[in-house]
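Hi R.,

Here's the chain you asked about this morning:
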Amino acid sequence: MALAQHFGIPTRLLDWTRNPYVALFFATNDILKINRDETNKRFAVWAIPQILLEVTAKFKFLKIVEVPKFQNQNIVAQQGLFTSHIPALKSENGTSQALPVSNGNDRFPYLDEYLSDYAEDELHRKFMDKLKGKPLCFTLRYDEISPIRRKLDQLNITWASMMPNLEGATKEAIRRSSMPSYIDF
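And here is the predicted structure, written out as tokens:
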């Protein structure tokens, strides 16, 4: 599944990085042109302590998927890992599994809600109360994208460095050819 996710096939995995600059690169990547009327729109980058993921994995369905780095230059360059908090509909022995449900309504919980919810387990609550660090969501305005991208370029956080192969070089060439269209506010 991790290999499929890495090549763009939809899976139930969430793609993470240990590097906040890499997170900013991918968060801003798809925001190509910024119109003046969009400067107050926002995008987000999540920071979740790995210990929180590890503690949650002890009490709930959560898998941290570390992909072997041998012969996987992209995972190494991106400092990547994956998580899954959506269990398969059937367990390995073929029995049906119920999906987690949000406390507030009948939808699937967002990851931060899922990680912070310990209603069903007293031991989990004790761990969560002692844990330093909760999921944090940093939101930034669209008008901050140009300075962020300039700084990422200075740090060599580019497609060419994130995907050190021909595909990354191609994406970087395309990105650089469209750079004059970015509006600086």
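One quick note: The chain has a mean pLDDT of 83.

Cheers,
M.
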